[in-house]
Structure formats: C-alpha cells, structure tokens
Amino acid sequence: MIVVRHYPVLPRTTSTPLPRLRLTILPSATPRRFCSSHTADDKDRSKKDITMYLQETHDKVFENNKSWAAEQVAKDPDFFKKLAAGQNPEYLWIGCSDSRIPAEQITGLQPGDAFVHRNIANLVCNTDLNVMSVIEYAVKHLQVKHIVVCGHYGCGGVKAAMTPKDLGLMNPWLRNIRDVYRLHEKELDAIADEEARYERLVELNVYEQCRNVVKTAALQQSYAENGFPIIHGWVFNFRDGMLKDLNVDFKTILKDIQKIYNLTN
Amino acid sequence: MSADNTFHYALSSNNAWAGYKAHQNPQFFPKLAGGQSPEILWIGCSDSRCPETTILGMQPGDVFVHRNIANIISPTDINTTAVIEYAVANLKVKHVVLCGHSACGGAAAALSDVRVGGVLDTWLLPLKTVRFNHAEELEAITDEKERIMRIAQLNVEAGIKVLMNNATIREAIAERGLEVHGVFFDISCGRIKELGCGTAHAGKGDHVVRGKHGQLVFGQDGEAAIAAAQ
Fold first, then answer.
1. pTM assigned to the model
2. Which CATH number fits domain A87-261: 3.40.50.720, 3.30.70.100, 3.40.1050.10, 2.40.170.20?
3. Looking at the complex, does the CB of residue B58 fall below 8 Å from at least one CB of chain A?
C-alpha cells in the first residue's frame, strides 16, 4: 500500500517572501547600463540599493535554512542524527538544472531518498566524467534500485539546441541534443507544429539519455548480477506540475544495445 | 520501504503535490510554465542528504542547480561549465553558491589510499590535490570525522578559487556585482554556514550582518554559532 506523507511537504517557512520586488524600483536592471547615464550620486545610491538587495536575498536563504532545520528537529529530534549516520538512497535522479524542478519537492522524497545529478538538459554523455562518476558511484557503491532520467517540457537547453546559433562555450554540451534530433530526424520533421515538435524532442531526449545510462558498464554489470537498477524516463510538465512516465522499455533497450555496447565481460 | 514502494511512492506523491500546489495557489503552475528567473545558482554534492531547495526553504523557480560527486569544480569540465555559462550569462543569477557538506563520501575517498576504481579516481583528482596541498593540517587532525569535514571545507575553498577565475563569472562580478559564496552544510544539525571565501570576503575578515529576523555571522564565528545552536 502506498502511504502519501502529509502535505504540505515544505511550505515556505518564513512569512516574508523573497524581496524580489525591490529590483523593480531600481533605475535599471544592470548597474553597467545606468552607470553611464546617471550622476555620481545616483550611481552611489543605486550601488547601495543593489548591495542591500543582494544582502537581503542572501540573508533570506540562511534564515529559511534555520527555520527548516528547527522544523525537522521539532518533528523528529533524531532527524539529523539519522541523516548524519549515512545515506542509503533508492534513487538516482538525473534531471535538468532548471530551477523549477527541485527533484525532492516535486516527488515528495525526503533528504536521504534520492542521489541527484542535475545538468543542462539532463544529458548523459559518454565522455563526461562528471555524470559518469555519478552513475558509477550511485550504482556500484550506493546500489540504487532505480535510475530516473527526468526531462521537462519547455526546456531552455533543448530549445537552444534547436536554434541555428553559435552558443560559444555551450556548443559542445548542446551538440548532444542536436544529435538526438538527427537520430529521430524523420519523426521530428513530420511534426508540423513547432511547439509539438519541441515537446517531442524533449521526450526523445529523455529516451536517448536513458539508452546512454544503459550503455554504461556499471549499469549492465549490476543488472546482470543483482537484477537492479532499472531505468525510468519521466517528463515534468510545468502546466500542471505532473510527472509523465514515458514507460521506457528498459529490458528491450538493454537487449538492443548489448549487441554492440555489451560491457558485462 | 521496499524498492518498488519507493518508486510508486514518488509518482503518487507527485500527484498529491501537484494537486496541493494548484489548490493552494491556482497561478502556481501557469506562472512556473511562463519561465524561470532564479537568483541563485547552487553547486552542491549529489549526496541524497543535501536537497538544496528543501534545505534552503525555497520553492520551485528559486534555485538553478548543478550537483555532482563531492561538489568538485574542475576547470575543464564542460558539464559544470555549461551550467555556469547558462546560469550566469543567460539567466543572470545574482548569487553563485558552492556548498560542501559533512560526512561526504568523496572526501572520505580522497583521504584514503585505496583506488576507488572506474572513472571515480580521475573525477576525485582535484580533491586528492587538496589533500596533498594541506597534508600537514589534515594529518594533524586525529578525529576521522573532523578530518573528512575539514577536507570538504578546503575543497569548497579550492572550488571557489576556480569559480572566481572563470571568465564569465569574473565579468559578471565586475559588471553587475554577482556574488560568489562558499558555504558548508552540516548534516548533523541541518545548518548551512558561510566559509568566509568568495566575493563578499575578498580581503575582509569576519563580519556580522543584521537581517530582518536575526543576525548572521560570517567567517570563523559561524562555527561557534552552529555549536551554540546544537
């Protein structure tokens, strides 16, 4: 039986919202621009405003954190003692860096439940030691049972990769999404509506990244030996906050890729 | 919780969360779908005990996130670099926060002389370098937990140095006052403290900031404040 823990999971713990609106009273969003067109006095005041604003947004984080920690202790005096004893997460979450998808909050998972890697457009690249280390550690050392690759509609990274533009330092990273497009060129080109094509590319990107996880030695060896972890592809939808399970057929993918990518010795 | 239960829990839990959020504020998701303008780029550890948005008491849309093994900042790592580029140059975040934490598995591995195997040793190399650069200080610490904690803090300081030399970050600091902070999450009490490195502390000593709800002590005293709270 599934017992859903009580909600709210984590309401904002302090009553004052982030002083986001303060920015609108500033003469310009960037100090660089108004530096040139204002008097020295104005410049000084604006600088002070910005410094104060930065300090406040910064302080807020520490205040929130303090209240959050106190709240956990009030609920369970041993909360942090247990947490400090070690981690035993069931999940590895590979998601997008996008601020709107905090893995734990949207799934209701608690600290200790999910090992998390987040990068631009939730990519799993063969030569990226960063994500490869995460997968290896999660599978071999933490022995996670599930690996979730979670994308989201409206992904800025995917959008950027559909744009005919030189994006400098981001090129090598976003190239991987252009490659996903090339792999599914026929299907994507057949979609006339641009928005629909973009949404489909988001899904296909998740699907391809799941395949990339299956291609790793860590995954293949652990699955052969233990029967886990298994792979899931999800897409988060901002419009309703819901996760869509793409029902990635893990066993078929494994069988397919092992003709060429078999690393089980 | 069995493996199967956790999986179904997360999906059903998401359903409940989405319902709750929409009920609480019908504009929540439409607003979220409109775009993101986070003020914070958080670079932290993948460790399951450090869920950034949760421990910061923030909401979806507030924090842009990169999490890797042992929050290592490797100058040529294109993964981290792409995240920084997007967050600082495109989203124009106002704060970059690099966060280390106590009881870090990566820190423990770097202090050990055993090879972890696979790609992990290569990834952990910057942390190993921190170990050898501070060998004397670290060896003088007798308590193992303390030693792991200390190397994790030194790792944040080393990471901050790399971040402060990143061209995009340097430009943003000069042009629009971007702030870079090195912080540390103590899992045994759930508190985050400043490590006294980064932009706000360049060339300055400890200082106290009085916020609306209390005072915040930066630098060395932060540790004392945490001890007092325990």
1. 0.81
2. 3.40.1050.10
3. yes
